[in-house]
Amino acid sequence: MSRGQAALLDSVGTAPEAFAPPAARWLHEMAGFLPELAREAGSAAYADGVSTVDLNRAGIDSLIQLSRASDIATDVHEPLKALLYRRSAGGHGRDELLQRFSSC
Questions:
Q1: How far is CA 49 from the centre of its chain?
Q2: Which has more confidence, 61 or 41?
Q3: Whole-model pTM?
């Protein structure tokens, strides 16, 4: 675990050892979602997705705010934030995030 990741956990009073089990469950669930993502990518059916541009835009905003409040650099997340804001402003907020990466 990086210093930044540990600092984020510290800022909310969570030990890395306590965070690991729910993180592992989340990763397991996300792995189960991969076939659905593959189907979407294969069919190019991105409208009204589950993991939308706007949902991820809100998530990256929260991560950046928490990072700044914890004095953690946000430079790695800023390009993704800019991309998500451009896509949302262009009327693609409800599109699946995967579309951004399959059309790059």
A1: 14
A2: 61
A3: 0.65
Rounded CA-CA distance 94/53 in Å is: 6
Q: How far apart are CA 79 and CA 91, in angstroms?
A: 19
Counting other chains too, the contacts that 75-82 makes at CB distance below 8 Å and 24 or more residues apart are 81/57
Q: Are 74 and 67 in contact (CB under 8 A)?
A: yes
Q: Which residue has the tokens 């990741």?
A: 5
Residue 73 near residue 67 (C-beta atoms within 8 A): yes
* More confident of the two residues 65 and 96: 65
- pLDDT for 67 equals 86
Q: What is the overall mean pLDDT for the chain?
A: 83
Which amino acid, one-letter code, is at 5? Q
CA count, 13 A, side-chain hemisphere, 22: 5
CA-to-CA separations, 83 to 23, 59, 73, 79, in angstroms, rounded: 26, 13, 18, 6
The candidate with the shortest Cα–Cα distance to 86, out of 62, 53, 64, 60, is: 53
